[in-house]
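fyi for ur records
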Amino acid sequence: MDTLAALLAGNDGHVAAFRDRFDDVQDVQRPEAVTVCCSDSRVLQDHMWGNDRPGRVFTCSNIGNRVVQRTGAGTVVSGDVLYPLEHAGTDLAVVVGHSGCGAVTATYDAITTDVVSEPPGIRHCIGLLRPELEPCIERLPDGRGRADTVNDLVECNVDRQVRALRESEDVPDGTTVAGVVYDFQDAYDGERGELHVVNVDGERDPSVLRERHPDLAGRVQRRVTH
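which gave:
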């Protein structure tokens, strides 16, 4: 239990810093954005935004930063993502991929070898990503090494998740959907830990994105532009 004890000790500092920050959100939340992150321990989901305000960001996470789930009604936008858009007045959804994503790597291996040696729960997740990444693989440039291929597919996966949100009738009209990549492997030009904007409302062309969103221009960067 040493690890849990250490985590709880860390919570002491959180308590001291945050004790007065819940006054306005104890009974209601109106988050400005919902983020869909990969549940990777290296992806610091609130810290990456410099967020220290409860109620500002509604954070969802799963392996592969997927926005969909399978139900008896078919594949639908996950309730985790949909809830703040439907019930809390949130009008911005941000899909957050990251360099070197293990889920994307596992899906790439499953596609290229047709072998998945994973427990059922992980196979289920790979099964949700596979139909999204298969078309991406077909369009990637030839001669890419494994690491570059995976990072190209990370970007493509973000695009596909953005598209799923934009095409869903369950997502309220007027919702802005953005896609970003969190980089800690030097996959982009920039500092480790930077977020790079790769997609806004389906637009992927960096020059168009910079023109339409000059306030984001310094963070717009793509590996794959097709």
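The chain has one domain: 29-219. thats all i got for now
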